[in-house]
Write a structure and sequence with these properties.
5 strands; 40% helix; alpha+beta; five-stranded mixed barrel; elongated; single chain
Length: 131
């Protein structure tokens, strides 16, 4: 029943070697990619918006500044809109509403770590860049 002369084919050896190589290198590739994300910082200059009104009815600018400031002071999510992209803004694992409410409807510069998940952009560990 068992034929000891049955040697592995070249294809079987190639598939096995490819599989083993992929398993060996994938953790290193993931670690390298994670390291890049952890160090990625960006400076973003744009308008501070309250995300509720901005997303719901594109409310921006001077006409909406007082409403945006009220929403941000009230704890609504805050963002920065720049060059066709809008980022949810958070400090170091906490909201920055108290610091950013006074800038509602105005253009400022923030620096932080940019992350993205399922189409949502976030500027984390953000800080205001003083000019």
């Amino acid at each position: 029943m068992f034929n000891s002369t049955n040697k592995p084919t070249v294809l079987k050896v190639a598939v096995a070697a490819s599989f083993i190589t992929a398993l060996a290198f994938s953790p290193m590739a993931l670690a390298e990619e994670h390291g890049k994300d952890a160090d990625a910082t960006k400076t973003v200059t744009g308008e501070i918006v309250d995300m509720m009104c901005f997303v719901d009815h594109n409310a921006t600018g001077d006409k909406h500044a007082a409403c945006a400031a009220k929403c941000i002071k009230g704890g609504g999510p805050v963002g920065i809109s720049s060059e066709g992209k809008t980022y949810l803004v958070v400090g170091e694992h906490k909201p920055m509403n108290d610091q950013l409410a006074e800038y509602a409807g105005k253009t400022i510069t923030l620096k932080g770590k940019v992350t993205e998940r399922e189409g949502v952009l976030m500027l984390a560990n953000a800080e205001i860049v003083k000019k």
